[in-house]
Automatic annotation (TrEMBL), chain A:
<dbReference type="InterPro" id="IPR029021">
    <property type="entry name" value="Prot-tyrosine_phosphatase-like"/>
</dbReference>
<dbReference type="Pfam" id="PF06602">
    <property type="entry name" value="Myotub-related"/>
</dbReference>
<dbReference type="InterPro" id="IPR030564">
    <property type="entry name" value="Myotubularin"/>
</dbReference>
<comment type="similarity">
    <text>Belongs to the protein-tyrosine phosphatase family. Non-receptor class myotubularin subfamily.</text>
</comment>
<dbReference type="InterPro" id="IPR010569">
    <property type="entry name" value="Myotubularin-like_Pase_dom"/>
</dbReference>
<dbReference type="InterPro" id="IPR011993">
    <property type="entry name" value="PH-like_dom_sf"/>
</dbReference>
<protein>
    <recommendedName>
        <fullName>Myotubularin phosphatase domain-containing protein</fullName>
    </recommendedName>
</protein>
<feature type="domain" description="Myotubularin phosphatase">
    <location>
        <begin position="143"/>
        <end position="518"/>
    </location>
</feature>
Automatic annotation (TrEMBL), chain B:
<keyword id="KW-0443">Lipid metabolism</keyword>
<dbReference type="Pfam" id="PF06602">
    <property type="entry name" value="Myotub-related"/>
</dbReference>
<dbReference type="GO" id="GO:0006629">
    <property type="term" value="P:lipid metabolic process"/>
</dbReference>
<comment type="similarity">
    <text>Belongs to the protein-tyrosine phosphatase family. Non-receptor class myotubularin subfamily.</text>
</comment>
<feature type="binding site">
    <location>
        <begin position="276"/>
        <end position="277"/>
    </location>
    <ligand>
        <name>substrate</name>
    </ligand>
</feature>
<feature type="region of interest" description="Disordered">
    <location>
        <begin position="507"/>
        <end position="556"/>
    </location>
</feature>
<keyword id="KW-0378">Hydrolase</keyword>
<feature type="active site" description="Phosphocysteine intermediate">
    <location>
        <position position="339"/>
    </location>
</feature>
<dbReference type="InterPro" id="IPR029021">
    <property type="entry name" value="Prot-tyrosine_phosphatase-like"/>
</dbReference>
Length: 563, 556
């Protein structure tokens, strides 16, 4: 295997591993093309720690005794001198864990460090672990993915009157980041779509993303229109949008940029929908942070959480300074606004920012969770993520290349998906009975997005996944999460179906730091996990009792009150 | 009654902003001797809102607007009511009456002296015997061959603000006690707060010594020596001064101060740095303001939180308790705790330490016992601190609020360790201020005895005990590891958060949130019911029909 050229030292004995929540262990360290494997050789315990190299965000190495050793052993040979020395590698993971390895032998230590550095950020996607992961419990022929746009459309009978499935993008030539099939108004033909695609950044023309059964209103999403400095317009684009609100008086456009940002975008060829051309659409500008600013916010927050300071003022000011919670607040309130337009005011909405692959997906997903009970179950939520993030072309490969610890120069990294999971967690905390999945699921997804055995989050869009043969050569995470054993720990024992919308409170006091994630490796998170476990046991026990004493029983009705 | 200028005003608009109400409701306002009552006009609901006069912390009249004049009632449980009265004259009368009614001048005006639940004299007496501190000392294993009950303070002869029954080291003779009391501020000599049976170490409390720069007292030195000897395994004790060191030093100039380590052998002095009541008062005001902000941004909120300093103070108190608990449980060293007078910060630090050390105090009954012992019996000045009577505003300070909040912060960190829920803590907080029961009236045991409160009022504890079903945390299991032994909380700043349930009623009630705890309580109740039914079923002979289970609901 070509990985071997990057591995000079594959095995080291007598290594000490320090990791959070565990006592230090002494044992053997192995490095392979994709993993670090540590086996505890202490008697009576056979602990193994397997770490995906891709999960490593950054390492710090320090070698000790180099000078003193060379002084002390000046007569001895080089190798002896080095064997008297030792080194320490601090490993900072993308799941925010920090591990430390004390390695005897400086040369070994440097070799291991070098291997980690190279192998943890291989550029070639086809060399990544998902293409090598072959668990005995699953076969590559198992179903890949949960649903497809085609299936989604065929299940949504109520769409068929006014909406059609278009395969204009079947070879990804109209929009490289869209899936092969999309849902558009029936009255727009594929020729029109091709023209509209030229008028939208990256070809992301407006497509249907959500249909609200209660009133027939929809959420559309796209990228910004390419009006440019000379205010071009596109008749087909206007017609497409007109077809969306056909019959109702007006629609809303939620632009996730500030007015100024949107106007400035004209200078670089982008722009916004003008009032004169889109007279039945009302534009709402809601600025959301994106890109680098979001990544920096994450870095600051993680840094604040890692600091062992005892000073309350310092913590609160660092928490504020990171702005992470402000981003959570903005995302939830913008999603709330979107849901309000659709559910309360009964209008259709088009959402976009600039590229339409980040904040657009963030708020459309959250709005669906707020309004639509069918995406609040475990399957429903995973299907939603598959449709709105994986298939809709959120560039996972670029956004999740690095997490909060990396010193590498930032390129396209941005924790948009993590922000989504945080917002979903806030919803979950505010409505503990309304969502069918557990916090453990959100934590698992946060880890998998950055480093995974599965192919689900590989690549930036469907086109790349097709080219790599992801479907044929890797396993699907979503399928794995729904297997019976996983299902137990990822479902919410308290879940009660409710038809009502769940309106989140975005008041600052209602939003909290997501301890489960950001302080995951501290001991007190453990007490909270114990409590979750206790809840699960109670409900299971209760269920058993209920079953054994009263088989024919009615379903509990629980009211979720609207705001 | 003479203070009520107008007993009834019609067509009044009431906006209860704290319960998330957005539109004012129209109704009639009544002023009684004890309550402000608002009855909605809406014939379908006729909703009534009752506000006890003693719960009102301030009454404010805002400038008249065309729709009428407005009175804003701010309550001690942080609720806020806006009342719009159509006629300015009426408004003036309501305002004047409420200002007076909310500031009683004599104990006899307080609600507990007119509150008359439907119980007879025997039941009332029984209600007072619900709380038995001797039983708690007995539970700790006292008296034993190290600690004995002393009669030195019977009839409150040595210290007016102490209880009459106290535990001291066996070797502390009455002359030592009396001498030590003379050398301590307000005569509050070292006495036992908690005895830890596992390590034989004790938590003791007192007030600051009257040492000035060089004063010393043989009896006091002997007293501390006796404390050390009462813990056979140790050769020193910790003296925890909960004040910032600078404040303690400043006190020396006034003839008070702290123990000189040269004079006392075998003590280790440790300063904690909890701020004084004045700092706490203004800090709480700031956090109340944060809770009242209408549409704060996240930045406003976090800045306000930091600026209030409130969480910093809560952390300091928890740190103090943790230091004491560690000394007692891990090192097996006894601790003597004091501040200035030994009735505010000392009470906080000792009671937090007890909560951490002993799982019993994490039960519903246990917390009542703890508050009765460390706060009520040891002379925490309830009436002064919580403004029961119109008096010196500088005496008012949220000292026990902070203790109750420490317990809440702990319960957030250890969700399975406490038998009670947040509601219980809020209920205690309310009753400390409400003056509906005599338990928290007055400033020390002697005052309560002199006022014959046991005959004239009721005790709050049995009332809370009766309601314990709604105060129970469904996740609590006595046998679970989290519930046992010493609690070791993490006090890193990120472990603290603002207590929304107390300070932010508005948010608490906007949409009634789904509560897993309530859900689980029902689950637990039903489980018990089912278990009983199953047990009954097994007694039914084979072939017999199982008894029907009325009202049974199951998840599908």
């Amino acid at each position: 295997m070509e990985f071997s050229e990057h591995i000079k030292t594959a095995n080291v004995e007598d290594v000490v591993l320090r990791q959070p929540l565990h006592p230090p262990g002494r044992g053997t360290l192995c490095i392979t093309g994709h993993h670090l494997l540590f086996s505890d050789r202490e008697e009576g315990s056979c602990r193994q720690v397997l770490l995906l190299l891709r999960n490593i965000d950054a390492i710090e190495k320090s070698v000790e005794n180099l000078l003193t050793c060379s002084g002390l052993f000046s007569n001895a040979g080089l190798s002896q001198r080095l064997s008297g020395s030792s080194g320490t590698i601090t490993i900072k993971c993308k799941d925010l864990r920090v591990l430390q390895l004390d390695i005897p032998g400086m040369e070994e230590c440097l070799n291991i460090a070098r291997s980690i550095e190279t192998l943890s950020c291989l550029d070639s996607m086809s060399e990544l672990y998902p293409f090598f992961y072959r668990p005995s419990s699953a076969s590559l022929r198992d179903q890949w993915g949960l649903s497809s746009l085609e299936r989604h459309y065929s299940q949504m009978k109520e769409l068929h009157d006014r909406w059609r499935l278009s395969t204009v993008n079947r070879d990804f030539s109209v929009c490289p980041s869209y899936p092969q099939a999309v849902i558009v108004p029936k009255s727009t033909d594929d020729d029109m779509l091709e023209k509209v695609a030229k008028f939208r950044q990256g070809g992301r023309f407006p497509v249907l993303c959500y249909y609200h059964k209660k009133n027939g209103m929809v959420i559309m999403r796209s990228s910004q229109p390419l009006t440019g400095a000379n205010r071009k317009h596109c008749r087909e684009d206007e017609q497409l949008l007109q077809a969306v609100i056909d019959g109702s008086d007006k629609g809303y456009i939620i632009d996730t940029r500030s007015s100024q940002q949107a106007l400035q975008a004209r200078m670089t060829g982008g722009g916004l929908e003008s009032k004169s051309c889109y007279s039945s659409w009302k534009r709402l500008q809601r600025q959301m942070e994106r890109g680098k600013a979001l990544q920096e916010s994450l870095i600051k927050l993680v840094e604040a959480c890692g600091e062992e300071s005892n000073n309350m003022d310092r913590w609160l000011s660092k928490l504020e300074n990171s702005k992470w919670l402000s981003h959570v607040q903005t995302a939830l309130s913008t999603a709330g606004l979107l849901a309000e337009c659709v559910e309360r005011d009964g209008h259709s909405v088009l959402v976009h920012g600039s590229e339409g692959t980040d904040s657009t997906l963030l708020i459309s997903t959250l709005a669906q969770l707020i309004m639509d009970p069918s995406c609040r179950t475990l399957e429903g939520f995973l299907t939603l993520l598959e449709r709105e993030w994986v298939q809709a072309g959120h560039p996972f490969q670029q956004r999740c290349a690095h997490s909060a610890h990396s010193h590498a120069r930032l390129q396209q990294e941005s924790p948009v998906f993590l922000l989504l999971l945080d917002c979903v967690w806030q919803l979950w905390r505010q409505f503990p009975l309304a969502l069918g999945f557990s916090e453990a699921l959100l934590l698992r997804l946060a880890t998998e997005a950055y480093a995974s055995d599965y192919g689900t989050f590989l690549g930036n869009n469907q086109q790349e996944r097709c080219a790599l043969g992801v479907k044929e050569n890797t396993h699907c995470l979503f399928q794995a999460l729904l297997r019976p054993r996983e299902r137990d720990c990822y479902s919410n024992p308290l879940y009660e179906h409710t038809e009502l919308a769940i309106w989140p409170s975005v008041y600052p006091q209602s939003l909290q730091l997501w301890r489960g994630f950001f302080l995951r490796w501290t001991p007190q998170t453990h007490h909270l996990e114990e409590a979750q476990e206790e809840i699960r046991n109670m409900v299971i026990e209760w269920g058993k009792l209920a079953l054994s004493s009263c088989p024919a029983s009615t379903r509990r009705s629980e009211d979720v009150q609207n705001m | 009654m003479e203070h009520i200028r107008t007993p009834k005003v019609e067509n009044v608009r009431l906006l209860d902003r704290s319960s998330g109400q957005r539109k004012a409701s129209i109704g009639t306002l009544y002023l009684s001797a004890t309550h402000t009552i608002f009855v909605e006009n809406n014939p379908e609901t006729r909703k009534e809102s009752w506000v006890l006069h003693s719960m009102v912390s301030s009454v404010e009249r805002t400038p008249t607007i065309p729709a009428g004049s407005q009175v804003i009632l701010r309550c001690k449980d942080f609720r806020v009511f806006q009342i719009l009265v159509p006629q300015e004259r009426d408004c003036l009368d309501v305002h004047t009456s409420l200002v007076r009614l909310s500031r009683p001048e004599k104990y006899s005006e307080l609600y507990c002296l007119s509150f008359n639940p439907n119980v007879n004299k025997e039941e009332r007496q029984e209600s007072w015997s619900f709380m038995d501190l001797t039983a708690d000392y007995k539970r700790m294993g006292l008296p034993n061959n190290l600690w004995v009950s002393t009669a030195a303070n019977s009839e409150y002869r040595v210290c007016e603000t102490y209880p009459s029954e106290l535990f001291v080291p066996k070797s502390a003779t009455p002359p030592i006690i009396v001498g030590s009391a003379r050398f301590r501020s307000r005569g509050r000599f070292p006495a036992l707060s908690y005895f830890h049976q596992d390590t034989l170490a004790a938590v003791c409390r007192c007030s600051q010594p009257l040492s000035g720069f060089s004063g010393r007292c043989q009896e006091d030195e002997a007293m501390l020596q006796a404390l050390m000897k009462a813990n056979p395994g140790s050769d020193y004790i910790y003296v925890v001064d909960t004040r910032p060191k600078l404040n303690a030093m400043a006190n020396r100039a006034a003839g008070k101060g702290y123990e000189n380590e040269d004079h006392y052998t075998n003590i280790k002095l440790h300063f904690i740095g909890i701020e004084n009541i004045h700092v706490m008062r203004s800090s709480q005001q700031k956090i109340i303001d944060v809770g009242e902000m209408r549409f704060p941004s996240m930045t406003d909120f976090l800045y306000g939180l930091e600026n209030s300093g409130w969480l910093k103070h809560i952390k300091a108190i928890l740190d103090a308790g943790l230091f004491i608990a560690r000394a007692v449980a891990d090192e097996g060293i006894s601790v003597l705790v004091h501040c200035s007078d030994g009735w505010d910060r000392t009470a906080q630090a000792c009671s937090v330490a007890s909560i951490l050390l002993d799982p019993y105090y994490r039960t519903i009954r246990g917390l009542m016992v703890l508050i009765e012992r460390d706060w009520v019996s040891f002379g925490h000045k309830f009436s002064h601190r919580y403004g029961h009577l119109d008096g010196d505003p500088k005496e008012v300070s949220p000292v026990i609020d902070q203790f109750v909040e420490c317990v809440w912060q702990l319960s957030e960190q250890f969700p399975c360790a406490f038998e009670f829920n947040e509601r219980f803590l809020v209920a205690i907080h309310t009753h400390i201020y409400s003056c509906q029961y005599g338990t928290f009236l007055g400033n020390c045991q002697k005052e309560r005895r002199d006022m014959r409160l046991g005959e004239r009022t009721h005790s709050v504890w049995p009332e809370l005990w009766k309601e314990r079903a709604q105060y129970t945390n469904p996740l609590y299991r006595a046998e679970q590891s989290q519930s046992q032994g010493v609690l070791r909380p993490n006090t890193t700043p990120y472990c603290f958060k603002m207590w929304k349930g107390l300070y932010n009623h508005a948010e608490k009630s906007t949409p009634p949130r789904q509560s897993p705890a309530d859900f689980l309580s029902t689950v637990r109740e039903e489980s018990q019911q089912l278990e009983e039914e199953l047990a009954n079923q097994q007694e039914v002979p084979p072939g017999g029909t199982p008894p029907p289970s009325p009202g049974l609901q199951t998840r599908g």
